[in-house]
Amino acid sequence: MSAATGVARADEGRWQFWVDRGGTFTDVVARRPDGRLVTAKLLSENPEQYPDAAVQGIRQLLGVKAGEAVPAELIDVVKMGTTVATNALLERKGERVLLVVTRGFRDALRIAYQNRPRLFDREIVLPELLHEEAIEVDERLAADGSVVMPLDEAGARVALQQARGRGFTAVAIVLMHSYRNGEHEARLAGLARELGYTQVCASHEVSPLIRYVARGDTTVVDAYLSPVLRRYVDHVAAALPGVRLQFMQSSGGLTDAQTFQGKDSVLSGPAGGIVGMAGIAQSAGLDRVIGFDMGGTSTDVSHFAGEYERAFDTLVAGVRLRAPMMSIHTVAAGGGSILHFDGARLRVGPESAGANPGPACYRRGGPLTVTDANLMLGRIQAHHFPEVFGPNADQSLDLEVVQARFAELAQEVSAATGRDVSGEQLAQGFLDIAVANMANAIKQISVQRGYDITRYTLITFGGAGGQHACRVADELSMPRVLVHPLAGVLSAYGMGLAASTAMRERSVELPWDADGETAARRTLEELAGIARADLLAQEIPADIIQIKNIVHLRYAGTDTALPVALDGTQAMLKAFEKAYLQRFSFLMPERGLVIESVVAEAIADESGQIFQAFSEGNGSARPGGPEAADSVRMRVADEWRTCPLYRSADLRADDVIAGPAMITDANATTLVDDGWRATVTARGDMLLERAVPRPQRFAVGTDADPVMLEIFNNLFMSIAEQMGYRLQNTAHSVNIKERLDFSCAIFDSSGELVANAPHIPVHLGSMSASVQAIIQDNAGSLRPGDVYVLNNPYAGGTHLPDVTVVTPVFDQAGRDILFYVGSRGHHADIGGLTPGSMPSDSRTIEDEGVLITNFRLVENGRMQEDSMRQLLAGARYPARNIDQNLADLRAQIAANEKGREELLKMVDAFGLDVVHAYMRHVQDNAEESVRRVIATLHDGEFTQLLDNGARIQVKLKVDHETRSATLDFTGTSAQLPNNFNAPRAVTTAAVLYVFRTMVEADIPINAGGLKPLKLVVPQDSMLNPSYPAAVVAGNVETSSCVTNALYGALGVMAGSQPTMNNLTFGNAQYQYYETISGGSGAGGRFDAQGKLVGGFNGTSVVQTQMTNSRMTDPEVLELRFPVRLERYIIRQNSGGAGRWHGGNGGVRSLRFLEPMTVSTLSNGWIHPAFGAAGGQPGALGKSRVIRGNGKVEELAHADQAELQAGDMFEIETPGGGGYGAA
Length: 1222
Known about the structure:
A hairpin with a 5-residue loop joins strand 2 and strand 3 (37-43). Helix 22 (984-997) runs parallel beside helix 23 (1032-1050). By secondary structure, the protein is of the alpha+beta class. The protein has 24 helices and 56 strands. Among the domains are: 15-88 and 237-274, Nucleotidyltransferase, domain 5, CATH 3.30.420; 93-224, Rossmann fold (3-Layer(aba) Sandwich), CATH 3.40.50; 500-604, Dna Ligase, domain 1 (2-Layer Sandwich); 706-899, no CATH class; 934-1051; 1059-1221, no CATH class. The chain is globular and about 90 Å long. This is 5-oxoprolinase (ATP-hydrolysing).
């Protein structure tokens, strides 16, 4: 299966070169004039040997000597993918960028959607901004694109001129609603060019799609990366004068070097891999494949079923990109992923050893990695690996040091767990974990989306993919693996298969009716003309250009748009419903459809028929099969076996190799695992198939094993996350879909928490009490097909809008309850005094909405919709949008059903006794992690005062002998006559959250975390109220204060804003709720003895502590509700001073375009976020109504107001406290 090599001669015709310039290696595939393919692999950075790897690879394959010019007449085209821009983004080494925004939005990209990336980190670290400076201009458009305020062009000219004087040459222009009307941006862009800016990016041209934050980030990325990309492109072009040069875009299409933009370059290399995967799938006659690209630091997985899957919203390196990209899911499990032992579990990644020092076997003192585990088990053979290691780059991989390091780790694991384990067993365990992690990543792009993965073929590529492909396929019950001859350089090969494309998209946001469809078709016709012109400008013949038109449709009131090919109306509806049913398992025919956006793609396929040409002699199979080149020792099924090693160059079509066996070539190693069989096809591919049926049941003991502990922990969390994915994508309300104000969890048979997909901290731990209330109230009467709903705050609920749906999971016979699954979502309205069900003046639970206790929502598989509707309508203050409540409940039922299905699959795979045992083990693991933290703590106490005169008092008493602690809330205020009472479940959740943040390692959140903690919460106190106490502020406000009080008693950090700043507004037609972020507290870092060794600053305008809900994008907010966001900025100098300063709060101003009732629930207007260890408190919060006539009315921390059209609500959120004396 080797490709031919040789030196070109002018009379042989012309060459093509396909290049993937990666971060570590540059791969080159060349098509010789005679059609044969040759390859080269070089280090991407080797300045002592050559200035550029791509050019050097071309010179090497052409046989051009040093100092000689590259003969351009021999080259037809160079097609390249590059990580130059990606690396600049990751390393934050792009161009200095000036951001120009609508006045009031200078901090919009920094604040973004408010959520923090890591829920349990006390030090909140946000991605570094790409723009260096932001200036505001006076102008404003409405949501429909009409002009509210004309552009002050004179003022903009002055600001731009001053910034140009400060050295800026790149500018990103992002104005509100410019996707509707780009006139203001176009005028500013003209000004910038006139003033000498050389890189000018306007958002309506870069990404003409709704969502200000994502469009803004995309535009800044374009300005930040395009100059870097241009310099590289010019460098390559100068080295290859006269050669046609094309680059791969993130969308999977090639474009001329001069039109290659920064925003389209971020996935340039990986996109080539998907094109290559799709090409070989189609040539092999495979219509459903999963791409498995495993490299050194990570693994990329992708799905292909006849059409490229593209995402238009992607998060890369902390930056939101609203541009077409190949849909790729990345997991931090590569050959260089570092292996850890945390005292109980084995862990793989996410950290990587990189290229330097690299794995332990690289002879640079690196850590143990997945590569080392493979070497330890004989799955990599040192003497069949290039000898490029050691000080003189002439030594093989170091097996001895790997064996010694695994032996040391085995002793550590044995001592900690009491289980006798060998180095080989450890290496195998780490591989098992890595394989499970990669399989879970594939589930996210397949199983979660409704695809039957057992009907798919796994196509493996990348340097490490072939070593693990059979194992990953087994994990997913996939029957086939395809390995291409160029699997090790498939991304480069994909460059040769790719078509030239130009893609143009635009938001439409119109109902799908006759007028909307006409508008969409007209827009597509315009975009298609622009895309076609782009290709014609690249001198591509008009007769090979094809146009592909796509319409993105979604149900009204939802955010999940699905792509549908432009066709007749009924055909498009049928295609949409088929895709929606596939993804979500139900339809909503009663809801209208909305055209979200349209995409026109011009495609010109110039690649022709490309195939791998083989050396002569590689003909049909020989009698007796292929001859092994060597015999090697490899660990197979817990024993060492002698296995054949074959060189791929020696294999012929129809050769069959039975596993276990190893196949090597210059670019990769492929393992044929035991029970598998490899067949060489006529195309030169290797088709790996299961020769022996895969075991249906895994033989796993019930005793805690550090390998299986990590695998089950990840499996349990994966199920909870799959439930969350189903809920987010099928819910109707903005609260659940966009703000992610929901949580999903699985519970053991007694209702104790096993795994909780962490979205909202206040839900942590509290759902168990709701599940246990259902168990207690229905003892002996639960039946298969039953689903229950409740929001009772005296039975595990938090506040009435948080509605919990509980499903018992019965065995297949329907006799025994094995587990429970639950989902809790914040409904936009559940009744009560005010729209949004967050009244500031409620005095009893009846004032806050419909109280639901132990209601059977589904009986024998049938939803009791009429009864539920009556319940929601029958309260004194009924729900205002019952149809939306029911839609969200259906989504919660669907999420629970997903959890039920996955848990039963787990039982089938491992056995019920094993699953139950590991539910206990993961809880024990969390318990031990918390006990270790407690051992480092000291006694403490703290009193937190609330603005309403209440107090929260907590005393921490540590028992170092038992490594347990008592948290005594005696002295806390009695049950309050207002709504700041917090159900005990909320207090429990706050305690669990705080102690989880004290654990540095990533551990699961479950009931085990509470076992070392004794809570004393006096009955009928504000933290343990009785019916009919009002509680709506307790869930949001009091929970924040409990968290602050706990940190105060621990002494580890200052207070964050002591509030969630709840804002609700609405009328008979609209209801909306949001929480508004403020400053986080600064804190200290401590050693194992509790000594202060450092600290950290607080973070500005970010969700803290008991919430992490997202803010609705300002353009989406204004499109859906009659409001106008005037500004949302950082409130400078509002964080407390100290050695480490607190984070700043924010200023948010909303002008109402219709009469609305506005209700606020806040705290910290009288008592600020406290400073600690000598630090100063943060600034107090404030809120006010500014009437249309200019009159200002100050509001209390919990207040309500009637606003008329033209009135404005404004809030200044509290800052966080400082830590340590300045």
